[in-house]
UniProtKB/TrEMBL annotation:
<dbReference type="InterPro" id="IPR017853">
    <property type="entry name" value="GH"/>
</dbReference>
<protein>
    <recommendedName>
        <fullName>Alpha-galactosidase</fullName>
        <ecNumber>3.2.1.22</ecNumber>
    </recommendedName>
</protein>
<dbReference type="Pfam" id="PF16499">
    <property type="entry name" value="Melibiase_2"/>
</dbReference>
<keyword id="KW-0326">Glycosidase</keyword>
<dbReference type="Pfam" id="PF17801">
    <property type="entry name" value="Melibiase_C"/>
</dbReference>
<keyword id="KW-0732">Signal</keyword>
<feature type="domain" description="Alpha galactosidase C-terminal">
    <location>
        <begin position="325"/>
        <end position="410"/>
    </location>
</feature>
<dbReference type="InterPro" id="IPR000111">
    <property type="entry name" value="Glyco_hydro_27/36_CS"/>
</dbReference>
<comment type="similarity">
    <text>Belongs to the glycosyl hydrolase 27 family.</text>
</comment>
<dbReference type="InterPro" id="IPR013785">
    <property type="entry name" value="Aldolase_TIM"/>
</dbReference>
<dbReference type="GO" id="GO:0004557">
    <property type="term" value="F:alpha-galactosidase activity"/>
</dbReference>
<dbReference type="GO" id="GO:0016052">
    <property type="term" value="P:carbohydrate catabolic process"/>
</dbReference>
<feature type="signal peptide">
    <location>
        <begin position="1"/>
        <end position="19"/>
    </location>
</feature>
<keyword id="KW-1015">Disulfide bond</keyword>
<dbReference type="InterPro" id="IPR002241">
    <property type="entry name" value="Glyco_hydro_27"/>
</dbReference>
<dbReference type="InterPro" id="IPR013780">
    <property type="entry name" value="Glyco_hydro_b"/>
</dbReference>
<keyword id="KW-0378">Hydrolase</keyword>
Amino acid sequence: MKKAVLLLFALSMSNFGYSQGNTHTQKAGKFEGLAMTPPMGWNSWNTFETNIDEKLVKETADIMVSSGMAAAGYNYIVLDDGWMTRERDANGDLVPDPVKFPNGMKAVIDYVHSKGLKFGLYNCAGTQTCAGYPGTRGYEYQDARFYVKLGIDFLKYDWCNTQGITAKEAYTTMSNALKTAGKPIVFSLCEWGNNQPWEWGKPVGNLWRISGDIYPCFDCEFKHEEGNWSSWGFMKIIEMRKDIRKYSGPDHWNDFDMMEVGDGMTNIEDKAHFTMWSMMASPLIAGNDFRKMSKETLAILTNKELIAVDQDKLGVQGFKYSAEEGLEVWVKPLSDGNWAITFLNRSDVAKKINFDWKKHTIKDADFGYEANFNKTIFKLKDLWQNKEIGNTKKNFVSDIAPHDVITLRLIP
Ligand code: GLA
């Protein structure tokens, strides 16, 4: 009898959250369904680092709309590191830098929203951000309420200065804090793949970085003089992780980092970079200066056919099918039995492609999709030329320049 009374008491207390007198229920788990296709937008870091301000945000938002980027699907404007002052205020709140944002952050966010776009901010799970601004450690619930008051839609959450804490716990705490604060906010995990976020991140966030920072080159490693770390050319990031594509999908994406399209590579390399991000179903977050964007860069970033590959509702990350003497073939299953296939010339010399479909059966070992060209004939559409080019009855024959790509959509 005594046992039954105790059990009843324990059960009734569990309705009150965690301790006696706590009548406010803490919520857990990310906001579901905020990123059913990979998020698209712009982030300030790759070009501007901490040199950001109100004018930059407004001009970027204006161009996002006037250039056609918004119509192509880019809708998040994310301010990365450097938006705060060096200290919290007397109440422990974060303070948007009053010199960079003289009218306050709310005015900036309202402006971005008035353009029909969404807005994101950055912070860090550690005591300080990577650039030395106040981190969120110990302030998770307070910062979450601060973001909700501002009205942000996206939070990128970084991993500097995190000695002594574990990633899964720290990201779960922030995720729960956002959920409890109550406004749906896309939660972008940025711990560089150090702690296998693909294994535990799905209930926690909507996307997670899988690598250290990107660098605007095809395949280089850029060693930073200070500290013991490197940034990576885009093909290095593409190849960095093995066997993690099965963890990526709608609302829980492997994030290959903000793009470097328009940041100094050749147009051919930019095209290859954008193609590979689309083949990987990566978030497409531009990182260039829109105010100086060339026609060619804009055309690459707004290629509707490639964006459709990235945003395909099946949400399956592509994979390398074959590689022979620097000529690689990458494939991505798409909805309605379609496939995207990319020929990538990884080498520094021009190559010839002669692809006899009948000799290939493409099998996706992780998701079970298969393209058998002896059973099914596919129509072919060249996604960079935007034209139909026949079908898989005949060999696909083409020249391909160094570092260039040819991407076809296969339609059964
Ligand atoms: C880390 C992140 C970058 C950027 C900087 C900001 O390096 O990986 O994407 O956010 O911090 O300091």
